[in-house]
Amino acid sequence: MKDMPTNKIGILGFGCVGQGLYDVLQENHQLEVARICVRDKNKERKLPASAFTFDAQELLQDESLVILTELISDPAEALTLIRQALEAGKTVVSANKKAVAENLPELIALQQKYGSRLLYEAAVCGSIPILRTLESYYADEPMQEVNGILNGSSNYILTRLDTEGISYKEALQQAQELGFAEADPTLDVGGYDALHKICIIAAHAFGVVVDVREVLRFGIESITTEDVDLAHKLGARIKLVASAKYTAAQQLQVQVLPTFVWPDNELYYVQNEFNGVQLEAKYAGKQFLKGRGAGSHPTGSAVWADVSAALKGYKYTYPKLKPAPAAPATNTLQLYIRSKGDFPIPDIKWEEVVSFGVSHEAVQLVGVVKKEELLRHQATLESRSTFVVEVPEALSAMEFIQKALQQERVVA
């Protein structure tokens, strides 16, 4: 005879993640799903109508619920619900990275004031337990850098471009058909999803709350097969990499940029919808974590991990949190930039720059520029469909150009 559930859980949202969590919950009998709150009354669902409610307040005011899971897509609505739940002293598990990243100081303060708890592992890297690792294993050790592929949708697209030689449009369509990308993929391919995730990670890894508006961010929407061919000539792959690291001057710098990655980097081998995170601590050195970053069950399992931990009394302690903000962007980057020929590149003040491809179709540059200068022109570059890729300093500009001008296409 199966053990009867002793606790009740409420689920806000029944999309990809909510359904994944529900499936996971059916494999154990610790919790009973009280009600599931959804918005669309006309959508067909596999569960009986009695399993659902259309009023979030039914769950928020239900004192029999030990945990409330917030799994809706609207960040503004999610924030409102999280606030109300925390003010009611509830334990909340959320997968909404935007709501958390942009309001973390307030959410921490609410937990402290009302004795509530908020866990959000599923908001960051799908099935990879990165926050728990940072909170527990690295709680008392200084971190030097955290970087990785934090968005499974964009990584799937880049993988298809790299391995099949198809266009961005075709790869995006594949990702949408498989459920890895939304009908409007802007948050994923524009780098916003990775931006919110790296800002959350920075708070746990370095104890610094980062203002997302001050982070340098470029996505992959403007990538072409020519850019992928160039990466092959270099012996590299293009990956959308989010990073937070201390500079030589001990300034925390956070960014999200397409990046040329070579086979000596673990991220080179992170393909399809997988995520990969590299950690570098002062004493422990480098670690690498890899797992599925998209999909109903991988993300649902991350929510369940938080729920299970919360039942045992776990909560984030933010051991490194301090009031000091992240430093302004003052260091330099080496970049490859390609812009359409009819959209001239804005008047960027380069530290050094070399043009190696100019035609009516495209302008290609490689050079070094200060981050704050790039931030100043970010909106203009994006509006002109300019593709920006970081070139690691290990490859000099001249070496880059020599390889870029090779006539034969060399597949990595």
Structure report:
- The relative contact order is 0.13.
- β11 (274-281) and β12 (285-292) form a beta hairpin.
- The chain is built from 15 helices and 16 strands.
- It has 412 residues and is an alpha/beta fold.
- It is 35% helix and 25% strand.
- It has a 6-stranded parallel β-sheet, sandwiched between helices.
Descriptors:
alpha/beta; 35% helix; 15 helices; 412 residues; single chain; 25% strand; 16 strands; disordered N terminus
SS summary, helix count:
15
Give the uncertain stretches in residue-range form.
1-5, 407-412
Radius of gyration: 22 Å
Q: Sheet with the most strands?
A: 6 strands, parallel
Write the layout of secondary structure elements.
Layout: E1 7-12, H1 16-25, E2 31-37, E3 52-53, H2 56-60, E4 65-70, H3 75-87, E5 91-94, H4 97-101, H5 104-114, E6 117-119, H6 122-125, H7 130-136, E7 143-149, H8 152-164, H9 168-177, H10 186-189, H11 192-205, E8 216-217, H12 225-234, E9 237-246, E10 252-261, E11 274-281, E12 285-292, H13 296-311, E13 332-340, E14 352-358, E15 362-370, H14 371-383, E16 387-390, H15 397-404
Parallel strand pairs: 1-2, 1-4, 2-3, 4-5, 5-6, 8-10
Antiparallel strand pairs: 7-9, 7-11, 9-10, 11-12, 13-15, 13-16, 14-15
Question: What is shown here, in short?
Answer:
The protein is α/β, with parallel strands linked by helices and 412 residues long. The protein has 15 helices and 16 strands.
